[in-house]
Write a structure and sequence with these properties.
- Helix content is 30%, strand content 18%.
- The protein has one domain.
- It has a 5-stranded parallel sheet, covered by helices on one side.
- It is built from 5 helices and 5 strands.
- Strand 3, helix 3 and strand 4 form a beta-alpha-beta unit.
- With 107 residues, it is of the alpha/beta class.
- The chain is globular.
Length: 107
C-alpha cells in the first residue's frame, strides 16, 4: 500500500506503518493545496492520504476518488504515538474514496 503523509502529519508515524510505502512532504507535495494535493497524489499512485487537517473532509468532494483519506484527530506526536496502531489497522480496511476520522483521545 502506497501512503502519502500531508505536511501536517508527524513523520514518526511512518515507523508504525510497517510494510507500507510511506512518503511525506519530501516528495514535493509540501506546498500543494488540498484539492490539487488529492489530484497529484492520485496521479502519483498513492492509495491513502494521511492528514491531520480536520476540515479536509468538509472542503473536498471524495466521490470517485482513487484514494482513501485517514484523518487522525490530532497531530500531537506524544498523544498520537500511544494510539498509532489504531491508525495502522484502519489502513487495512480502507477503500478508495473513503474518508475515515480516527479519534485519538488524549490521556
Amino acid at each position: 500500500m502506497k501512503i502519502l503523509f500531508d505536511i501536517n502529519t508527524p513523520a514518526p508515524l511512518a515507523w508504525v506503518l510497517r510494510g507500507r510505502s510511506v512518503a511525506g512532504s519530501q516528495v514535493g507535495f509540501g506546498t500543494v493545496a488540498n484539492g490539487a494535493l488529492l489530484d497529484a497524489a492520485e496521479q502519483a499512485g498513492y492509495e491513502v492520504l494521511v492528514t491531520c487537517g480536520q476540515n479536509l473532509r468538509y472542503q473536498q468532494n471524495f466521490i470517485d476518488r482513487k484514494l482513501a483519506v485517514v484523518i487522525p484527530s490530532t497531530n500531537h506526536w506524544p498523544t498520537l504515538r500511544r494510539r498509532a496502531a489504531r491508525i495502522d489497522s484502519v489502513g487495512d480496511f480502507m477503500q478508495r474514496d473513503q474518508v475515515i476520522r480516527v479519534d485519538v483521545p488524549s490521556l
